[in-house]
Specification:
Elements: H1 2-9, H2 11-15, E1 16-17, E2 49-54, E3 57-63, H3 73-84, E4 93-99, E5 102-108, H4 115-120, H5 133-152, E6 166-168, E7 174-176, H6 195-199, H7 205-221, H8 234-243, H9 261-273, H10 284-302, H11 306-346, H12 349-358, E8 364-376, H13 379-384, H14 388-406, E9 412-417, E10 420-425, H15 434-450, E11 465-479, E12 485-489, H16 491-501, E13 507-510, H17 512-519, E14 525-535, E15 539-549, H18 565-600, H19 605-612
């Protein structure tokens, strides 16, 4: 006895681990690579779990938060008992380590996390294949074996048994952790705590049996801890368990009515574990032997050995993982394709591919491209007589149709700013002389569409656009990091904009350089000489109107005859006013007809109004 006491007192010499022996993990081993103690933002305590490497093994560092390292003789004896435990279903305790001013317990690490995590993950561990009834019995059996050994050891009691303190290794073996040291880490009151310990804080073997019953219900149902269909508040659950009032104590749901004969025996065993009277609860030796018998009978009925069952389960698990990988791969591909489609709407395809492959796009000079600009004549006047939502709807209706037209031509939409619409052809993919042809045909398609377009909120009002086209060299590249844009630079861009601004409503204003390119193609376009036009920054040049093609396939609208811009604005405002006045008169007429009809039918007028208008107006 004296030798044993002396051996226990020598604990300090061999149980403390030098901090330099706790190494950080490699990145490939886990995402937790640091031993640095970070403050937990949720409270005034630090996070209590860290990972590290000790003696070439991955370990968990559990914060012994109530200790400064100056252990009492009783605590030293408890820690010494833990060091002597070495069992298959219990995690190994390697000792303690002091890092900075904190004391940690060094404990064996299990890769799959806690049993609570496994039960919650119904995708990786589905009920139908991997987590079947046989496996659930196996999990309960593992815990019972571990607790049976622990209760027969010098540690004698766990004190904090819960599903979060049962961990699963890479071979799906369940091990119990965080046992013993109750003088260092006193147990807290929670849903796994036995009613007698809720009333009087303590630990006991029968209290561990109660906690085991709560865990068993979690395993069977795979629902929340202490699941009941009629009580959801944890504080209320604890209060009702602690009070113990009534003939039938408050316990989790575990109905015997809908289970088979094989499950019945397990259900009865679990219910016996949470008896109100601790003396009526079985000990873990009995629980272990009962589950061993059930497990043995199960294999006897199936004519399978344990290894056969394990192999079959692993095969099912493997197939489920393959299906899961395929499913996740398909989801990934769908998301990737969706992201690509969105990127292709924002940037040219070659630019997107270059950004994905290299992360950058080199600016590029293009010898010859054709640029299109258009805007809506009298857009400011239209906005004046429209609500903001009507303006948005108007532009959306117009540009959706423009975008659909663009899909039929080799062009790239650069941007829209308000009512301005900019398109280019010949970049980023060069297409010879086709850039002028594609832009010209696209412009004719757009102008033909505008001849029949009608505003939803101003029906009957013509919408006039001006179009300008110019060809020449330009530079292009991606500008910016956030919201990157593919931008064009050079005098060609400015000139194309001048062609649009000096144009006329429902006309396609084309520069001489574009006409010269069209002449070199086999496409027969019709055009008229406009004459000399002053372009700011370039002087006076001969410009043209594009009027169609030789085959007369474009039905273009007739342009308004007035060239004075102010006169056009005034005419547009007058047309809008007439439309709005006509709508108001029609509304008044309909309201009068409704009033007369209500009078003839004997219904009071104000009741008729309430039924047809917003009733809140009359409250």
């Amino acid at each position: 006895r004296k030798y044993r006491r002396d051996n226990e007192r020598r604990w300090k010499k061999w149980s403390h681990i030098p901090p330099e022996e706790i190494l950080p993990l490699e990145t490939s081993e886990t995402s937790h690579v640091s031993l640095k103690i970070d403050e937990d933002k949720r409270g005034d305590t630090t996070q209590r779990l860290r990972q590290g490497k000790y003696d070439k093994k991955v370990v968990i560092l559990k914060d012994l938060k109530n200790s400064d390292g100056n252990f009492s003789e009783k605590q030293k004896v408890e820690l010494n008992k833990l060091l002597q435990i070495d069992y298959y279903n219990l995690t190994k305790f390697y000792g303690t380590v002091k890092i900075d001013t904190m004391i940690f317990g060094v404990i064996e690490y299990c890769e799959r996390g806690s049993l609570r995590d496994v039960l919650n993950d119904k995708i990786s561990y589905p009920d139908g294949t991997f987590m079947d009834w046989e496996f659930k019995i196996s999990v309960m059996y593992d815990i019972a074996k571990g607790m049976s050994y622990l209760h027969s050891s010098r540690t004698e009691v766990h004190g904090r048994l819960k599903s979060t303190n049962c961990v699963v290794d890479n071979r799906m073996v369940v091990k119990i952790t965080d046992f013993g040291c109750n003088s260092i880490l006193p147990p807290r009151k929670d849903l796994w705590t036995a009613p007698e310990h809720l009333r009087h804080a303590d630990v006991s073997q029968k209290g561990d049996v109660y906690s085991y019953g709560i865990i068993a219900q979690e395993i069977i149902l795979r629902k929340e801890t202490f699941y009941t269909g009629h009580c959801w508040d944890n504080k209320e659950k604890l209060h009702r368990v602690e009070s113990g009032k009534g003939v039938k104590p408050f316990r989790p749901d575990l109905s015997l009515e809908t289970v088979g004969e094989r499950q019945m025996e397990v259900y009865i065993l679990v219910k016996s574990c949470w008896e109100e009277d601790p003396e009526k609860r079985p000990d873990f030796k009995k629980i272990e032997s009962t589950l061993a018998k059930i497990f043995s009978n199960y294999h006897g009925q199936t004519n399978e050995s344990y290894m056969d069952t394990l192999i079959r389960r692993l095969q099912l698990y493997s197939r489920n993982l393959e299906h899961l990988v395929e499913e996740r791969t398909e989801l990934y591909k769908a998301e990737r394709d969706r992201a690509d489609r969105l990127n292709f709407m924002l940037l040219p395809r070659p630019v997107v591919k270059s950004l994905k492959e290299t992360g950058l796009v080199e600016p590029e000079l293009f010898e010859e491209v054709t640029i299109y600009f258009s805007d809506i004549v009298g857009f400011t006047t239209l906005c004046k007589y429209s609500t903001p939502m009507e303006v948005v709807d108007m532009l959306n209706d117009i540009y959706k149709n423009f975008d659909h037209i663009l899909d039929h031509h080799d062009v790239y939409k650069v941007e829209t700013i308000g009512d301005a619409y900019m398109v280019v052809s010949g970049l980023p993919k060069r297409n010879g002389n086709r850039h002028a042809v594609d832009i010209s045909m696209m412009a004719l398609d757009i102008l033909s569409f505008m001849g029949s377009f009608e505003l939803r909120h101003l029906p009957g009002l013509p919408v006039w656009i001006r179009i300008g086209i110019h060809s020449g060299p330009c530079a292009a590249g991606v500008v910016g990091i956030k919201m990157p844009r593919y931008c064009l630079f050079g005098d060609t861009v400015n000139t194309a904009s001048r062609m649009e601004s000096t144009g006329l409503p429902l006309r396609i204003h084309v520069s001489g350089s574009t006409i010269n390119i069209l002449k070199r193609t086999d496409c027969q376009f019709q055009y008229e000489v406009r004459g000399e036009t002053y372009l700011k920054g370039r002087g006076t040049e001969i410009t043209y109107w594009l009027t169609g093609t030789e085959d007369k396939k474009y039905n273009l609208p007739t342009p308004p005859s007035v060239e004075n811009q102010q006169r056009l604005q005034d005419d547009l405002a007058e047309m809008i006013t007439n439309i709005l006045q006509k709508r108001e008169n029609e509304g008044s007429k309909m309201q009068e007809l409704s009033r007369v009809a209500s009078y003839r039918s004997g219904t009071l007028e104000y009741l008729q109004l309430v039924s047809t208008e917003n009733s809140a107006t009359y409250l």
